[in-house]
C-alpha cells in the first residue's frame, strides 16, 4: 500500500512547506504537490508530502452512506440490528 | 484523529456487515481482488473477513511495492554500497529488511560496513546529499504512483541545484499494468479457474492518477472496479458496492474514496512525474515476472542523477525458490496455505517469496494476523 | 569502584564539568580516573557501601528464608536524553523493574559505564545526577561500579550496564510459565510511550509531540499489587518488542493462548497518532514504566483496584483472558468487530511507507 494519513494544516511555512497536526502530533511536510492548500484544510500525507486535499463534504457524505447501511432494507435490518444488540 | 477514527467505527461496521449479508445473493459466490497491500493490511488488521458472509472471498493482489521488488534490484543497491565506500544509500524503512542474494539485505549489508540509512522522505535524502558533499548519496526509490511524485520532485530539485553528489536508483512501478497482467493471466482470462468478479481499486495511488485509468478494465474486461480508502469501513463499503454491481450485471468504475480521489487525479503531480520519468519497456516484478511497460525510468535530461547510468549498474534477475507459489497467490490461483513453504521455511523472519516480505504481502498478512484460522478452534475460556 | 581517595584537595584542579570532555585518562586507572570517580560518581551516589571505596561492596545477607534475585541490564539508547528521562534514570529503572516483576524487593545496584572519548563531562554529570536521583527516589543505592573509556568513534557517548540484587520472600513464585487458562491479563497503563518518545527525537523522523517516556521504577506498584493479591501468577515489563512480544513470550512459556480486547488496551492519543504517521503498531512499541500482570480471574477486580490506586497504575486496565491453546497464539478481538493474531515482532520495528 502507500501509507498516507489525513492531517490538518496548522501553519504555512516558507518554501512550499507547512506544519500539519494529526491527533496532537505535529510534523513539517511539503505542499509542493498540491495547489491552494490553506490553514485548516486536511491533506493526505505520504512520505512527508501532501498528495491531495481532503474534501470534507465528501467525507461526511461517505460517512452518511455508512450510517444509512443499517437503515435500508427495512425489516431485515431491524431484525439484524436487534439480533446483534 | 479526524477522518481516521470515524472510518474504523465498530458500530458502523456491524451495520455495513448486515447490509452486505443482506445484499449478497446466497445462491452465488463473489470473489474480489483488493489490488493494494493497504487494503490487504486493513482486512487482516481489523479482521474484516469475520464481518463478511462466507460466499464473499477476498483475493489479495500484488499491490505492495516492497513485495514485488525483485531481488536483483536490491542486489544492485547492495553491490553499489559495498563496492563504493564513498556511497551512502538512503531508502525507506520498508526496504531495509527485504532479503537479497547471498543471504544479504540492506540491513545486513550495513552490518558489513555499507553506509545505508533510513529516511522518512525523499527530501531527507536530498538534504543529506547537501549536508555531506564529500559523499555520493543514492536514494533507492520504490513505490507506486503515490510515492513517485516526491521522487520526481527531488530529482528536479537536484537538477536545479546542480547537486552533483545525489542520484536516484529508480524502482517506481505502475499499478494499471499490474492489474492488466492479472486480467491477462490464463487462469483469469481463458481457463476461468480464478473467478474474479471485480477489483477494489487503489486508494492513495488514485489520489494521483485519478479514477479514469481504471475505465479500461471495466469496459474491456467487464470487471467492476471500486476505488476505496484504506480504512476498514471503506473496504467494506467497496465490497458492498462491488456486490451491487455484480448483482446488477454492471461493470463500472465507482469511487468510494471521493474524499480524496477525483476523476482526473492530481494533475500537478502527474505533470511533474512525466517531466522527469518515462516508461521502461519492461520491468521484472517478483511473483509476476517481466511485465511490459510497468515501471518508470529517469529521462535523459536527468541522466546525471540516475544512479543506474552514473554507476553503470546492471540488473541481474534472480529466480525465486522453485517451490514458491507467490506468482499463483498474487493472481488468486492459490492461497498462502496452498504453498509448501508457507510457515515452514518461509516465514516473516526468513521470507523466501515476495508475499512474505512485507506485512502487506498476502502470505505475511496471513502468517502474522490470520494463521490461527488454519487451526481447528480450541475451546477457550474467554469471557 | 575503587576510590583511591587519596588525592589531596588543592593539588588537582577540580573536574571541568562545564567544558571538559572524557579523555582516555579517565579510564586508565590513574589519578584522572580517581578524580572522575570521587568528584562525580562517588559524590552523586554517596552511600555507606560505596563510600568505603573498595573493589566490591560487602552487603548484609537477606532475611532468613529469603532468596537472592539478580538481574543485569545493558543500556544503549539514542538519543541519551529524551522527553521524560535519559539513559541514567532509565538504567536504574530498567534493572529495578527486572527485579520487581519477579516479586523481589530490590536492594542494591551496581553500575558500569562505558564512555566514549570526547564525551562532554557536562552530559556525563547530567546522566549521573539523574541516575543518583532515580536511585535515591527508589531507595535502591548504587553500591559499586566501574568505568571504562573507549576511543572516539567506538562508542555512542555512554553505555551503562546496571546489575541489581533483590530479595525474594519465601514461597513467592512469579514467573512467565505460571499463566493458566481462564486467568485475567492486566496492564498498568498506556502503551508505547517510551518508544515513541525516543522515535520522535530521531533526526530522520522528527515530529513534535508532548509524548514523554514513561520510565519509572515499578517496585512500589508491585508491592502494592502483592499486598492486594499475593497470588499474582505472572508479572513482566513489556520493554523492547512491546506488549505484543511480551505476551507471546508468556504464552509460549506457559503453553497457553491469549485473547485480548483491543478496545480495552490503553494507548495515549498522541502515541496512536504518531504510530499512524510512521506505520507502527503501538502494541509493539517499547515501554519502560509499565507492567503486565496475570492473575486468577477472581482476583482481577481486586488487583485492578490496587493498581489504579497507585500513581503508576492510574490507567491500569483488564485487557484480556488467558485461553487454553497448545499453539500459544495471542489473539485479539478488534474494536472493529473482527479477530486477528498478535504475533511476535518480526525483526526490528521500522517505520513504513507502505
Automatic annotation (TrEMBL), chain A:
Entry superkingdom: Bacteria
High-level lineage: Bacteria, Pseudomonadati, Pseudomonadota, Betaproteobacteria, Rhodocyclales
Organism: Aromatoleum petrolei
Gene: hypC
Stored Pfam families: HupF_HypC (PF01455)
Family annotation (NCBIfam families): hypC_hupF
Protein name: HypC/HybG/HupF family hydrogenase formation chaperone
Entry's family note: Belongs to the HupF/HypC family.
InterPro entries listed in its UniProt record: Hydgase_assmbl_chp_CS (IPR019812), Hydrogenase_HupF/HypC (IPR001109)
SUPFAM superfamilies: HupF/HypC-like (SSF159127)
UniProtKB/TrEMBL annotation, chain B:
Gene3D superfamilies membership: 6.10.20.100, HypD, alpha/beta domain 2
Record's keyword annotation contains Transmembrane helix: no
A Pfam match: HypD
Keywords carried by this UniProt record: Iron, Metal-binding
Entry annotated with the keyword Methyltransferase: no
Signal peptide residue numbers: none
NCBIfam families tied to this protein: hypD
Family: Belongs to the HypD family.
Protein's recorded name: Hydrogenase maturation factor
Automatic annotation (TrEMBL), chain C:
UniProt domain PurM-like C-terminal: residue ranges: 180-331
Location of the PurM-like N-terminal domain: 53-167
CDD domains: HypE
UniProt-listed InterPro entries: HypE, PurM-like_C_dom, PurM-like_C_sf, PurM-like_N, PurM-like_N_sf
Annotated Pfam families: AIRS, AIRS_C
SUPFAM superfamilies: PurM C-terminal domain-like, PurM N-terminal domain-like
Family membership noted in the UniProt record: Belongs to the HypE family.
Designated name of the protein: Hydrogenase expression/formation protein HypE
Gene: hypE
